Amino acid sequence: MKLKKALIDKNNEHFLAVHKKNYQFLSDSITDTEDVIKKLTEFQIAIPSWALGTGGTRFGRFGGGGEPGSLEEKIEDAGLLHALTRSADAISLHIPWDIPSDAENIKSLAKENGLRFDAMNSNTFQDQPGQTLSYKFGSMQHVDRAVRKQAVDHNIAVIKYGKELGSKSLTVWLSDGSCFPGQLNFRKAFQNTLESLQEVYTALPEDWKMFVEYKAFEPNFYSMTVGDWGQSLLYTSKLGKKAYTLVDLGHHLANANIEQIVALLLMEGKLGGFHFNDSKYGDDDLTVGSIKPYQLFLIFNELVEGMDAKNMNHATDLAWMIDASHNVKDPLEDLLQSLEAIKIAYAKALLVDKKKLVEAQNNNDVVTAQEIIQQAFHTDVRALVAEARLREGGALNPLSVYRNQKVREELIKERGMKTVATGL
Ligand code: LRH
Ligand code: MN
After folding, report:
1. What sign results for the dihedral spanned by CA atoms 260, 214, 166, 51?
2. How far apart are CA 421 and CA 424, in angstroms?
């Protein structure tokens, strides 16, 4: 289903007058509006192919109908999100869930929808039909060399698919670990995993990046072999300059100070990018900014400060990706809300008065320092984010277009109630 520009423009007319007033009020109160708008416009977020259908848990899955039943339909749905928000010009594929049947055709369909291919994701956390060796006791950590080789070969195959599609990075998330004390020799598991990652790293094209994603627990519940940022940094430092650490916001132990982790990985030049989502307890994969919006803002505050300190390009030097799962919301509406929350956090971080903040920090003026960052956090920047969308031909209110145009109903007419998207 394609959403015609004229439809979006028509819907914008309802919101234009109020928007212009809000935007004027806001731009009068901030100094470099045009620079903020420019940065917001350039900031694009990749949509996870595996989150375009309804997710579920071991207790159940409640499909909503009209789900994308093929890679082509996933690209169309990601194209819809980009047409509405002008903020999601990329899709991140997961192999084997999204093996491109005809890479050239898939590439041109993506182009038609204004999309490029962000990081490719490998999968050695499930046994595929016909797979010779099981990953039950891990993949790259496995005591059996043959299982490790199978995992290495899979990752090299994923790179091949990525090269055909024009992707420039590989995300490796390993579910490897142990569920009971005594089950695993941590040192050997680390060394087997490093050796396996090194073989994949060697196969990585010169202009590619490898993202090593860490996770504190699940599906293993005693140890994870890439369990935290320190372990991931150990791997990426030993692997080489093309290897970076990927931060999935839901992969931390409770109350971890993720913004500090981000600041230090950035300082070390080893921060590769993000899997944005939100959580209250575990890897809940909830809508971005739905539970801890202040933490998301503090993370972007460290990102802007740290990237500027290294003259990095905000839009292109890190990988911005969503990784969420939708159990009770329409997947596309959930992703529209996540895209909005990310842009809002970024816009607020751009409004932090950095000069005054450094002054307060150098004077140990704790109260003023907090007042400065909370001034930015409490600023309603939605009109800025909407203005950036409007200038790029997007919707002032994407959710209202999605609902008014009955997109889900149309997709159900086209695809039926039963289609299930490959993914989690
Ligand atoms: C693991 C993870 C990883 C993906 C998977 C879909 O929890 O975050 O990034 O491969 O979700
Ligand atoms: Mn993830």
Report:
1. negative
2. 9
Please tell me the chain's helix, strand, coil percentages from 3-state DSSP, rounded to the nearest 5.
Answer: 50, 10, 40
Distance CA 117, CA 48 (A): 10
Note the pTM of the prediction, 2 decimals: 0.98
pLDDT tens digits for range 26-42: 999 999 999 999 999 99
The pick from 275, 277, 422 for probing ligand 1's pocket by mutation, whose C-beta has the most ligand atoms within 8 angstroms, reads 275
Q: How many A from CA of 275 to the centre of ligand 2?
A: 5
Summarised one tens digit per residue, pLDDT across range 215-231 is: 999 999 999 999 999 99
The residue nearest atom 4 of ligand 1, judged by CA position, is 173
Ligand 1 atom, smallest distance to 325 CA:
6
User: Can you read off the two tokens belonging to residue 82?
Assistant: 């980009």
Angstrom distance (rounded) from CA 165 to CA 171: 15
DSSP conformational letter for 367 = H
293: closest CA among 341, 333, 259? 341
